[in-house]
Amino acid sequence: MTQPHPAPASASWPRRADTGAAALTEEDLDRIHRWWRAANYLSVGQIYLLDNPLLRQPLRREHVKPRLLGHWGTTPGLTFLYAHLNRVVRERAQQAVYVTGPGHGGPGLVASTYLEGTYSRVYPEVSQDEAGLKRLFKQFSFPGGIPSHVAPETPGSIHEGGELGYALSHAYGAVFDDPALLAFTVVGDGEAETGPLATSWHSNKFLNPVTDGVVLPVLHLNGYKIANPTVLARIDDDELDALMRGYGHTPHVFTAGFDDEPPQSYHRRFAELLDTVLDEIADIRAAAAEQGAEQAGRPRWPMIVFRTPKGWTGPKSIDGHQTEGSWRSHQVPLSSARDTDEHLQDLQDWLTSYRPEELFDEQGRPAADVAALAPPPELAMGALPQANGGLRRVDLRLPDYREHGVEVPVPGAGVVEPTRVLGSWLREVVRANPGRFRVFGPDETASNRLQDVYDVTDKQWVAGYAGGDLDAHLGRAGQVMEMLSEHQCQGWLEGYLLTGRHGLMSSYEAFIHIVDSMVNQHAKWLKVTNALEWRRPISSLNYLLSSHVWRQDHNGFSHQDPGFIDHVVNKKADIIRVYLPPDANTLLSTFDHVLRSKQYINVVVAGKQPNPSWLTMEEAVRHCTRGLGIWDWAGTEQPGSEPDVVLACAGDIPTVEVLAAADLLRQHLPELRVRVVNVVDLMRLQPEGEHPHGLSDRDFDTIFTATRPVVFAYHGYPWLIHRLAYRRTGHANLHVRGFKEEGTTTTPFDMVMLNDLDRFHLVMDVIDRVPGLSSRYAGLRQQMQDLRLEARLHAREHGEDLPLVRDWVWPQAADAGAAPAGMANSATGGDND
Amino acid sequence: MTQPHPAPASASWPRRADTGAAALTEEDLDRIHRWWRAANYLSVGQIYLLDNPLLRQPLRREHVKPRLLGHWGTTPGLTFLYAHLNRVVRERAQQAVYVTGPGHGGPGLVASTYLEGTYSRVYPEVSQDEAGLKRLFKQFSFPGGIPSHVAPETPGSIHEGGELGYALSHAYGAVFDDPALLAFTVVGDGEAETGPLATSWHSNKFLNPVTDGVVLPVLHLNGYKIANPTVLARIDDDELDALMRGYGHTPHVFTAGFDDEPPQSYHRRFAELLDTVLDEIADIRAAAAEQGAEQAGRPRWPMIVFRTPKGWTGPKSIDGHQTEGSWRSHQVPLSSARDTDEHLQDLQDWLTSYRPEELFDEQGRPAADVAALAPPPELAMGALPQANGGLRRVDLRLPDYREHGVEVPVPGAGVVEPTRVLGSWLREVVRANPGRFRVFGPDETASNRLQDVYDVTDKQWVAGYAGGDLDAHLGRAGQVMEMLSEHQCQGWLEGYLLTGRHGLMSSYEAFIHIVDSMVNQHAKWLKVTNALEWRRPISSLNYLLSSHVWRQDHNGFSHQDPGFIDHVVNKKADIIRVYLPPDANTLLSTFDHVLRSKQYINVVVAGKQPNPSWLTMEEAVRHCTRGLGIWDWAGTEQPGSEPDVVLACAGDIPTVEVLAAADLLRQHLPELRVRVVNVVDLMRLQPEGEHPHGLSDRDFDTIFTATRPVVFAYHGYPWLIHRLAYRRTGHANLHVRGFKEEGTTTTPFDMVMLNDLDRFHLVMDVIDRVPGLSSRYAGLRQQMQDLRLEARLHAREHGEDLPLVRDWVWPQAADAGAAPAGMANSATGGDND
């Protein structure tokens, strides 16, 4: 690394003794307990009550919701922690986000942010009075209301609580490059069983103790899932201790709720533990600051094991079955409260056990002393700007990508590895944006040819060093993040984006399916926040899929599947964008665009192998702006009349094959009027009514014609093109070649042939589809078939492609003396995993 | 559990002292070393050589492959372990499978199984002579040859080595119910960073030490990935030790290759370690057998940390860069061996360093004493029947599902939870098939209403017990496997199936995307093995997705996405099947079918909420056999003439809505001739040329007509129906309603309305599409729109659906006095997570 990491923003991590806070009094603890009771009351109210929010009348059946939905079990633990955090955030003026791993504990977070006042500031109609309470209760998990999980609608959340497993990844992503931020992260013991969570503990090997913030994990052992105990609650204490130490943490165990210990006592114990742990963090920070970002070692960060009963403070037993402290507390313990008098009474008893009359005043406002536990609004965890990243987001400084463009004197010249060219520009992006742009990938940044970024930054690595060459490009502070876990990279990037920064993730096309479900969850976050005025737009989630399915050099058949595009396209049209730049200059232009964008999921597929350049930088900019276009220079149209056939392509390999087919057609069918169309922005194919990028029918017909055969060579599964272009006038004339799940081969052209996407087959397609050709050109068709056979046999004999194919160069480029490259031997260049 | 687990098959786990094996001699160790050298030589040969396999001529450029593809780095570790295992397998007559986590070390496994003789038995043309060696080398990662990874083509493998993360899950799946089997499982330190692998260590909490076999994990710390060090190789020894103990293992550390220790010495150390570890396992087994399957506690199973240099025995350095012991060994260290004399010489030196002339005889056969290290053929790891599960597979005994059918006196009667009915039959399947049928799910078996299985078996749980009620349905040996990790459940099930057994996985529809990429890998395994005569067919991978996207009761918007079906349908047609049974009887019939099938991925989507039954058992069998059909009783056709409109449906909720729409049309448009079609087997919609289940065009047109409007209500994303039916005559008349990513609601009908799939909207669709209706029935259309609005407002006011909707019953059923249920309030029944 040639450029040091920027000095961290001033970040104060005081010890409690240095804050001037007074010793904890019984009143302090009582206030915490009262807050907790209030939050639990509000949580139970949300799950059950349609009316009578302050229980000022005896509970009647019609006060209870007809459908009881939600999750009680995890909630009291979450509210307990929130209550205590209020105090330390206030005392230490600590910027803290609260990441809720057990996201189904939605009522607890809504209740807590309501008590602190944030909720009513964001949603004024949910006011701090009896009418507001009624709204608060009714809306929960109710048609037209809010989800039962922690969600984008929940102030203070950067974490959608549906699918479990990503709490720690999100938390670490949030604190990267934010040295003042504490991510207080509750990990549920159910969630802890998932794979992504199990590996995300190791994030601490990637956290700089000076330039990044701090994650404080709390493993919430309430012991049960839906209908089972949890693994981590049922291993021996010494094993759990070893596991946490093995993960690199110093565990602190807190247990409460299983005996008759009075609340004052367990609140005191937890408050003191929290102070101990935060002081430990303060000491670590101070020591690391002393050593400096480039020298500080990896601390054994503290974490808390928080063992409390599931459904703590809820009904001890229902119908003779233990409920508190059991999986029976998971959802709605008194599910027939509206149906039986006995359960209605149980619910009334449960609610009144919190003594709401002591917690809310006449108007229904939280009692003043309880409300005063909350930090000032600017520090309230529900209102911290980091939890509404768009508030903090500043556009990237983007250096001029045109300066990195490839010289293209004639089409087909300028053979380069496109992603390597992109890397040269990304180096400048990294340089220009210290502390707010990171590159994430599962050990593939260099493999994907982005290694130029290492001229200006390192891979952040806070585990052990072996010295010298073996640690190439590793540094304790850097803007590249690599761990062999797509889940982890995705989760970190999401956390980084959600807190207002920028980034991209590079991955193999085939393996990006690993995060399919995470993409779903992020897409839903974007969809929902698009409709929430108070949530400001965040940077797009950008994928670069550069080791794609057509070049499986080192990996045989195992690394195939272009279906991520299909997966993404199923999401809402206003969120997703898919780009298939055919060469280096279009890739640059595309990436400049996606790094400027907000609230999208951008998928860019572009190969890393040597590839001809087709467009000059200026042409590339125009082409990308249009999203698709006719390549006049490649076709043989006559001005003023429609072509006989359209050869369309999307993707780098399909583009090479279509151009080679166009070349063959020029040679063998010179009178045929061929139009060549290239598509960069796949969404242009959709009708304008279905996608914001969609072409009008008139424009579409102008480009693809309404009547002529269109032979379309596509990077992915062919059906997607049909789907996108389905409503177009000439759709019946559209013939798509794409990926067919064929091939166990290692030679590029052989792979293309196995899937019938090759130049020879495309020529055959043209002969078959243009009226009148098939009888007149039977010989040519046979010749094409023979060439395919020859190419197949050559590959099987020699292990490389037919020279005729391998050495093919677009005629203009050949005339200009350009070297072949389209399907070059990648023996020295192919390093897919 | 009312029925004890069957007594285990006799499983002998002797201590070495009891086997009669003599003490290890220097000759034994020399033989192991010679085997290792031979395996390494064969591995390097596969990566580099096209010819001159025994180096009987000086190496020339043309002997080197033109494209050098493969992975050397992990290989020597894999061959080292295989060599040593041969000895212990032979001495102890141990059934052992070798699970290769670092699957890109394909050449090492091919080399090892070639040396042991299995490879030539399976592929006679790859003979044990010079000609066979040449074939062995050439075929590797070569067009028309074999993949570079451990793959279905590799004898002895149950583990495709493309995507990393599943080695331990597969290994545990393999040993469940196979008490004599040892799964020797190499976990790469790269793979160890993935989420799925990180949680899979906890599999040991689910392994019975009497009735299951044993997994011996070897964490192969060679220190590097593609271009980075690995996390676990760069944490302190005490942390790694703690981590493994935290995972419940007793670690044994072995380090070699970093100094000048002579081979005899490190081979002796490892051989002794292996004996120690296997004796430890023998002691554990003996103690557990003493206690019995129902009483034995959880042992702290041994595992081995195997720390050796990446690319061990390869070039120490190339072009001045350290290569052995560095990430530079990952793939092909001498990538320009064909291009430069210096590297060609380096390659020659490397190959001759193994002294092939001492390892192969004149004919090119492995030297007799080396070959004799291999176990006898029936125990050779490449040939163990467990690694070719189809050899061991025995059809399930399937009790008559008809006996579990619901009485359906008239359509729409017999309101039941379909999966609960299925559960009653699965209970009998479990009962009839001890030890070879397991039910897997991420804590959802009871939530998905399959709890009847607990009458005859338990959830296998070998972690701690709390006592009584809190441990309901837990047992140390049982046929239900639950851990909150879809990855883990899927991996276990794959391992179980691949070794010849049967099972199913139940999961939420939305979360099954978590395993998208694993499905890819398994689908590829099936595709490839379909073409390998020697691989016998295994049982299908069966999914039951019962908490589906239309019933998000407890979960608001977070649990949606029916795209798993789309993902699966992208795979090869001869592998995938998708079923959407509309009621309990069709679900029973479908499951009977899928549990009999082989080599498929079967996706069955069926709700768990109360649902009317439409077909008697006999009708259901006929309907499922056809896969789709006209429901005469629901339509208003006149014999002898085409209907005016076809209402089609696939999925339980769409079926209810279509029938309710048909009912509305009867009332309001009695003269309209309506046909109702239900589709169970989605693949029937495809042309017969594209899928084995595809209907002929004639049959399709007979059912759907070629000319009439078809309004199709579909469970998932509507585009899939267009895609499947795209080539059908009447496709232009097809109008599909399905899932549109809309809805943040909790009321069933409201959800359906948000996606325009509701009965009122379907009636509007019919009015819009049947010629002549729109002008005459504008009033009815308006009425439908008004009802939608009313339903929306009612839900938002009352939190439940309009009584008109909620209480709707199909008229015949209403006449017979049947209760409503189609969209019943599930307050007491809905327990999605």
Automatic annotation (TrEMBL), chains A, B:
<dbReference type="InterPro" id="IPR018969">
    <property type="entry name" value="Xul5P/Fru6P_PKetolase_C"/>
</dbReference>
<dbReference type="Pfam" id="PF09364">
    <property type="entry name" value="XFP_N"/>
</dbReference>
<dbReference type="Pfam" id="PF03894">
    <property type="entry name" value="XFP"/>
</dbReference>
<dbReference type="InterPro" id="IPR023962">
    <property type="entry name" value="Phosphoketolase"/>
</dbReference>
<dbReference type="InterPro" id="IPR018970">
    <property type="entry name" value="Xul5P/Fru6P_PKetolase_N"/>
</dbReference>
<feature type="domain" description="Xylulose 5-phosphate/Fructose 6-phosphate phosphoketolase C-terminal">
    <location>
        <begin position="608"/>
        <end position="810"/>
    </location>
</feature>
<dbReference type="GO" id="GO:0016832">
    <property type="term" value="F:aldehyde-lyase activity"/>
</dbReference>
<dbReference type="InterPro" id="IPR019790">
    <property type="entry name" value="Xul5P/Fru6P_PKetolase_CS"/>
</dbReference>
<comment type="similarity">
    <text>Belongs to the XFP family.</text>
</comment>
<feature type="domain" description="Xylulose 5-phosphate/Fructose 6-phosphate phosphoketolase N-terminal">
    <location>
        <begin position="24"/>
        <end position="391"/>
    </location>
</feature>
<dbReference type="GO" id="GO:0000287">
    <property type="term" value="F:magnesium ion binding"/>
</dbReference>
<dbReference type="InterPro" id="IPR005593">
    <property type="entry name" value="Xul5P/Fru6P_PKetolase"/>
</dbReference>
<protein>
    <recommendedName>
        <fullName>Probable phosphoketolase</fullName>
        <ecNumber>4.1.2.-</ecNumber>
    </recommendedName>
</protein>
<dbReference type="Pfam" id="PF09363">
    <property type="entry name" value="XFP_C"/>
</dbReference>
<dbReference type="InterPro" id="IPR009014">
    <property type="entry name" value="Transketo_C/PFOR_II"/>
</dbReference>
<dbReference type="InterPro" id="IPR029061">
    <property type="entry name" value="THDP-binding"/>
</dbReference>
<keyword id="KW-0456">Lyase</keyword>
<dbReference type="InterPro" id="IPR019789">
    <property type="entry name" value="Xul5P/Fru6P_PKetolase_ThDP_BS"/>
</dbReference>
<dbReference type="GO" id="GO:0005975">
    <property type="term" value="P:carbohydrate metabolic process"/>
</dbReference>
<keyword id="KW-0786">Thiamine pyrophosphate</keyword>
